[in-house]
Write a structure and sequence with these properties.
- The chain has 10 helices and 10 strands.
- The protein has 275 residues and is of the alpha+beta class.
- Strands 1-2-3-4 form a 4-stranded antiparallel sheet, sandwiched between helices. A 4-stranded mixed sheet has the order 7-8-10-9. The chain has a two-stranded antiparallel sheet with strand order 5-6.
- It is flat, with a radius of gyration of 26 Å.
- The N and C termini lie far apart (80 Å).
């Protein structure tokens, strides 16, 4: 009798798993949650710009993203960056960390994601987003990173032979207690840095650089932000190559003012109901 009972239940070691905990809760949970999600969102829908800059970019009035940086135009739509950089833009999740808020009902846990985007050719962005779900936080971080894409100035160590391989000048970035200093390096030196800033520097297209960091570098979020702050300062140093006479040209909003004055779509008319 005992053998028959043990055989039906699979013994004490496997009986509870066969009765539902192993397959029902563990194995089917992932597939069940996936099936309960709503309709799949189509991210490849046609982009309808809602800003003046977006309209100019979509119609081809602005030829490159450097033209946007030249006039310091604020980018409010991430599709603008995708339009110019396209498939060259790669993203990397640097860290996902839980954050909590104390409420009367208890603790509310959310997830904070740090994401870097870059084209490995002089453009870099960093985004931080917090959400209840990890996937939503990552998606939001990617969008925030694309909105914060900045140009990174690269240069040479020694003779100007080949393509730029290191940063142009010494720069320092800081966030919280973390401070990082980047120093140009000769060809073949590689990226002499910790794993966290090394990935960020690679995505910016830098091949050789020395680094020195201080502070609580184990706080990865501040370490990434400090590295991004340092790279975003590379164009803030005015070197003799940039002393040429400035030729002022019209800003895109002023140059294409007639195009922007045209209405974009037909105004919405409320339906008239007969009583």
């Amino acid at each position: 009798m005992a053998d028959r009972g043990g055989g039906e239940r699979g013994g004490f070691s496997r009986g509870f798993g066969d009765r539902g905990r192993g397959r029902g809760r563990g194995g089917d949970r992932g597939r069940g949650r996936g099936g309960r999600r709503g309709p799949k969102r189509d991210d490849d829908e046609k982009w309808v710009p809602c800003t003046k800059l977006g309209r100019l970019v979509q119609q081809g009035k602005i030829k490159s993203i450097e033209q946007i940086y030249l006039h310091s135009l604020p980018v409010k739509e991430y599709q603008i960056v995708e339009f110019f950089l396209g498939s060259a833009l790669k993203d990397e999740v640097m860290k996902i960390m839980p954050v909590q808020k104390q409420t009367r009902a208890g603790q509310r846990t959310r997830f904070k994601a740090f994401v870097c985007v870059g084209d490995y050719n002089g453009h870099l962005g960093l985004g931080v987003k917090c959400s209840k779900e990890v996937a939503t936080a990552i998606r939001g971080s990617i969008i925030m990173a694309k909105l914060s894409v900045v140009p990174v100035r690269r240069g040479y160590w020694g003779n100007k032979i080949g393509k730029p391989h290191t940063i142009y000048t010494k720069v320092t970035g800081k966030c919280g207690s973390v401070s990082i200093r980047l120093v140009p390096a000769p060809k073949g030196a590689g990226i002499v840095a910790a794993r966290t800033p090394k990935k960020v520097l690679q995505m910016a297209g830098i091949e050789d650089v020395y680094s020195a960091s201080t502070g609580s570098t184990k706080t990865l979020g501040n370490f990434v932000k400090a590295t991004f702050d340092a790279l975003s300062r590379t164009y803030g140093f005015l070197t003799p190559e940039l002393w040429n006479e400035t030729r002022f040209v019209k800003a895109p909003f002023q140059e294409f003012t007639d195009f922007l004055a045209k209405p974009t779509a037909k105004a919405y008319e409320a339906p008239v109901e007969d009583y």
